[in-house]
Amino acid sequence: MLFRQIFDSGSATYTYLLAARLGAEALIIDPVLEKVEQYLRLINELDLKLVKAIDTHMHADHVSGIGALRDATRCVTVMGQESPTDVVSMRVRDGDWVEAGDLRLKALHTPGHTAESYSFVMDDRVFTGDALFIRGTGRTDFQAGNSHEAYDSIFGKLLTLPDDTLIFPGHDYNGMTVSTVAEERAFNPRLQVSSPEEYAKIMDNLALPSPKMMDVAVPTNRAMGLSQEKGVKEGWGLSAGDAIAEADGDGALLVDLREVSERRHDANIAGSVHAPYAALDQYFRPGGLLQFESTTGGKRLIFFCSYGERSAMAVEAAKEAGLTDVASVVGGIKAWMEAGGPVIYDEGANQDGGGS
Ligand SMILES: [Fe+2]
Question: How far apart are CA 185 and CA 194, in angstroms?
């Protein structure tokens, strides 16, 4: 496995670049905006294809690099479903798998530092974001933080992983790089408590100053979504209402770019074909499925995803591949549903509003 731990000294943030091997598909966790050029150089040097950029939560101490990486590589941005960010390509929930080539990470909802904090488990290691540090824990006094929830996340989830699980945190302020579950249970001073109340008392009395960057970082990180205006101006970004009307006729084929897990727990559109965003290169190449007239019937391809990011990027990629009659649903299936578009659910799906 290829594993790089990259440190941003300005915010004491750790960023992780992961891939199964040189030349493979890669994902990055908690990238920092100022270091995006450095990540891109490294990705290029290692011949990697960045397919996902994950933020463990909405950061208050630095501006995230996921938006800039998406713009540079067309990768999928990933956050937890509770994220207050305006647009993110894909929202995960507890237990979902995040895949990049042969890599698989399991999302664990670990709220407390913020409501939308997630940790990601991969084989022998866990990326804890700001839920758990080495000999410390993430503060719980802003952004819907909650010390009782933090206790449950740490003791009920992270410390129940096998003792030798490696812990890779989102920050370190003391020069440490890695720990283990057993080590933190034994030596983390904040975890030497016997009840949630005792932990909450410690956390609720830290009286920490606000992060220096907070006034800049939070609003910027909240508004990182891909602007979908370009598509509207150029005529390929369809409003949900227009997409619903077009889908009603015979001239269009709806193409669902979401992943299997999203289709399973969110709403689906009857009659759409599934072409996951990660596999689009194959579909677009000469002789690929979406180039075949027998598949598309010569119809206009209307891409959709959860919120419209992936579909907008797919239109750009499709045009580069020589497809001309392609469009994107602005706002994704969420907007489609808000506009009254018909949906169906997989059997056993959790019907909590779709596209969440
Ligand atoms: Fe944080």
Answer: 12
The CA distance from 136 to 110, in Å, is: 15
Report how far ligand 1's centroid is from the alpha carbon of 148 (Å): 17
CB atoms within 10 A of CB 352: 11
Q: Domain check: are 277 and 213 in the same one?
A: no
Query: Of 188, 222, 256, at which residue does a domain stop?
Result: 222
Q: Give the Å distance between the CA of 60 and the centre of ligand 1.
A: 6
The answer to whether residues 147 and 214 belong to one domain is yes
Task: Give the total number of structural domains in the chain.
Answer: 2
Calculate how far, in angstroms, residue 246's C-alpha sits from the geometric centre of ligand 1: 43
Interval between CA 209 and ligand 1 midpoint (Å): 14
Residue 169 and residue 133 in contact, taking contact as beta carbons nearer than 8 Å: yes
125-129 mean pLDDT:
98
Give one word for 332, left, alpha or beta, with left for phi > 0 and alpha for psi -120 to 50.
left
For residue 319, give both structure tokens: 């045009």
Residue 22 three-state SS: coil
Residue 169's CATH number: 3.60.15.10
Interhelix angle 36-45/66-73, rounded to 10 degrees, is 40
pLDDT digits (tens, 9 = 90+) for 282-331: 998 888 888 777 778 889 999 999 999 999 999 999 999 988 899 999 99
For residue 156, the model assigns a pLDDT of 98
Question: How far away, in angstroms, is 58 Cα from ligand 1 center?
Answer: 7
How many angstroms does the Cα of residue 185 sit away from the middle of ligand 1?
A: 21
Assess whether pLDDT exceeds 60 at residue 139. yes
- What is the domain range of residue 95? 2-222
Residues 250 and 197 occupy one common structural domain: no
Cα–Cα dist 221/85, whole Å: 7
Burial group, residue 287, by CB count within 10 angstroms (0-12, 13-18, 19+): exposed
CB 102 within 8 A of CB 20: yes
Do 268 and 183 lie in one domain? The reply is no
Distance 289 CA to ligand 1 centre (A): 43
How far is ligand 1, taken at its centre, from the CA of residue 59, in Å? 5
Residues 6+ apart with CB under 8 A from 128: 56, 110, 119, 158, 167, 168, 169, 170
